[in-house]
Write a structure and sequence with these properties.
The protein is built from four helices and 17 strands. By secondary structure, the protein is mainly beta. The radius of gyration is 20 Å and the shape is globular.
Length: 282
Amino acid sequence: MQYIPCSLLVFITTFCAPLRAQNVAHSQYFGDGYQLVWADEFNKDGSPNPENWTYEQGFVRNEELQWYQPENAFCKNGSLVIEARKTEKPNPDYVPESKNWRKNRKSIHYTSACLITKGLKSWQYGRFEMRAKIDISKGLWPAFWTLGVEGAWPANGEIDIMEYYRGKILANIASTARDGKTKWFSQTKAVDELGGKAWAKKFHIWRMDWDEQSISLFMDNVLLNKTSCSDLDNDDRKGIHPFKQKHYILLDLAIGGMNGGDPKGTKFPNRFEIDYVRVYQK
């Protein structure tokens, strides 16, 4: 057997593995007519690439418990980590007697991060893919989703490629109903059916195939939701079609709020770990 110096083995491990991953990313969907147009493999330790990501900050939506801040997101060992932490600090936006839920909370009890490509990267149509591992503890609400760049929600359109809360995986698409409220096309899958905690210890692949005709959402190559774009137009007929425009990506780990459940028995810090996010187009 030929002797290979340790220094060469370190080089191969450190540099060649990411190159192999990049080659796989570029080639794996050639047979379907797709080419890779953008990806973040999160291979460099430290802060996420500022050319790809900015951040939501503060209390943002759904009366969720977490205060979003950039420092809860970091890259380590080839993954993006979004870390939810339990804390106790004053809410800088606090206003006594305010009726606004963002301002009437005197304290911040949890922090997390929401990374967005808004203003940096956006796409119309394609195959969007994420490989990630989620924790299914009570009160956690991780998501990989998109929003349209033009218009106010929900008229701009929302696609939840991966969403989890209260024991179920969700694959959702939303636009505006005739009365101006949200129109949802939603499918769910109980995590217990998938294997529960053993399933959650592993990485899984979530994917969206989106073209002019339909939006299809998959988990580990199993179709969860396919909806015709003709059904997804805003029923109030105001403005643009929500899915005939570019969308940007969001990655977040929310806590509690209107859907997330009660996190009191959940251990913190807690993590949503993303191996990669990729976008392909034909």
